[in-house]
Amino acid sequence: MKVMTLFGTRPEAIKMAPLVKALEMDPEIESVVCVTAQHREMLDQVLELFEIKPNYDLNIMKSGQSLSEITSRVLLGVEEVIKKEMPDIVLVHGDTSTTLSGAMAAFYQQIPVGHVEAGLRSGNKYSPYPEEVNRLLTSRLAEIHFAATQGNVDNLLKEGINAQTIVKTGNTVIDALKSVIDDAYVFEDERLNQIDYDHKKVVLLTAHRRENLGKPMENIFGAIRKLVEDFEEVVLIFPWHLNPAVRHVAQKYLGGHERILLIEPLEYEAFANLQGKSYLIMTDSGGIQEEAPSLGKPVVVLRTETERPEAVAAGTVAVAGVEFEDVYDVTQTLISDPNAYAKMAGAVNPYGDGYACERIVSALKVWKKSKEN
C-alpha cells in the first residue's frame, strides 16, 4: 500500500511526524512524504528533529502570502505529485490551508483522502479562521476519518458521516510529545536555564491567531502585564510569533519588564520541555490544549470558544476569552488558589495514551483489505 502524507506547517509536522515514522517502519507500506512548506523555517526544525526527509518539498512560502495564494499554489503543486506517485491514499492533517488544498487535489485525481485529527468543531466558521471551514470541507472530501476523541466522532456522526468510515485513535501529538520530553533537558537560550522553575511560577504564553489581532490581543497582553506586576512570583515567557502585527502589540504591552522574557520561537523539542517546566500555559493555540495536560499543566485558552470541548469537560483547560478582566480573573485564580490549580493539574487528559499512530496504521491496513475485497 502506497501512503502519501501531506503537511506544511509546524503544528501539522509535529503531529504527523510520529505517524510518518510508523508508516516507514511497516514493511507492508510504501511511505511517500510531501511537504508544502507553508511554514518554511519552523517546518524544517521539526523535520530535522524527527529525521524526516520528504520525497517532495513544494516550498510555497512567500512573504505576505494571502490565503488564496497559499490555496492555489498547494493545489497545483500537490496535483503534480499525486499524478506522479498515484498513491492508494493521501493523508492530510487537521485544518490548515495545506490540508484543504491537498484534499481537493487528491479528490480531483479520484484518490482517497484520509483525514487525521478529524471532527474538531468550534461551531463558528470565522473562529478559528480559516481553520473551521477548512476542516468542515475536508470532512466532506475524506473517505476515512481518524478522530482523536469520542466528541470528535460524535461531531462527524451529527454531520452524516458514515460511522464505518470513522476510527477513534487518540491524538498523535501525544505520541510526539512522549518522544521528546527529557527531565535533564538544557536550553540553548541560557536565560531559560537560569530560571528557578521550582520556586517561581513560570507562565508560558503563545498567541498568534488572526481573529485575536487588534483589540483582543491588546486586552490579552494588557491583562498579562498586570498579572506579572501583581504577582512577584510570576515569570512570563513569550516565544513571540514572527508576525509583525503580534510583535508590535507584544512590545507595547509586555516589553521592558525584568520578569517578562520575549524570546524567539523555539524549536519543538525545546518548546515541549519548556511546557514541562512551566507552572501554567496561556495560549490561543489548539494543539497546546492537547499537549500540556499530558504534562500536568493547566491551560488558559485565550479565545472565545474552543473546538476542543473535551478538554473543558475534563477540566484540563479553562476558556478565558479575550476580555481584559476575564483573562486576568481566570489566570489569577490559578496563580493564587492552590486548590483550583491542583484540580486542573491533576485532571486526566482526554486526548490519548500515545498509541494513536499504531491505531491509524492498523486502520489503514483494514481499509486497504476492504477495498481489495
Automatic annotation (TrEMBL):
Which GO molecular-function terms appear in the entry? UDP-N-acetylglucosamine 2-epimerase activity
Q: Does the keyword Isomerase apply?
A: yes
Q: What is its EC number?
A: 5.1.3.14
UniProt keyword Ribosomal protein, yes or no? no
Q: Which UniProt keywords apply?
A: Isomerase
What's one Pfam family here?
Epimerase_2
Q: Which domain of life is it from?
A: Bacteria
Q: Where is the UDP-N-acetylglucosamine 2-epimerase domain?
A: 21-365
Coiled coil (UniProt feature):
none
UniProt xrefs under NCBIfam families: wecB
Q: Report the family membership.
A: Belongs to the UDP-N-acetylglucosamine 2-epimerase family.
Stated name of the protein: UDP-N-acetylglucosamine 2-epimerase (non-hydrolyzing)
Q: Organism, per UniProt?
A: Fusibacter bizertensis
Q: What is the lineage of its organism?
A: Bacteria, Bacillati, Bacillota, Clostridia, Eubacteriales
